[in-house]
Amino acid sequence: MSLLPGSLAEAARLIAARKLSPVELTRAALARADRLNPKLHAFIRITEDLALDQAREAEARQMAGTLRGPLDGIPVAHKDIYGTAGIPTTGHSRLLLDHVPRRNAATVEAWERGGAVMLGKCATYEFAMGGPSFDLPWPPARNPWDTSRFTGGSSTGTAAAVAAGIILGGTGSDSGGSIRLPAALCGVAGVKPTYGVCSRRGILPLSHSMDTAGPLAWTVEDCAILLQAMAGHDPEDPSSAERPPPDLLAGLEGGVRGLRVGVIRHFHETDLPATPAVRAGLAHLTEVLRSEGAEIREVALPPLADFHAAGWVILMAEALAVHETWMRTRFHDYGEILRERLALAALITGLDYVQAQRRRRELSEAVAAAMRDCDLLVTAGQPAEAPPIESIRTWSTVRTPNLTVPFNITGQPVASVCTGYGEGGLPVGAQIAGRPFEDAMVLRAGRAFERATAEARRRPAF
Amino acid sequence: MGEPISDEVLDALLARAGIALDPAGRASLRDGAAGLAVLLERLHHPRPLEVEPAPVFAPLQGGR
Question: Of A243, A344, A390, A430, which has the highest C-beta tally within 10 A?
Answer without folding.
Answer: A430
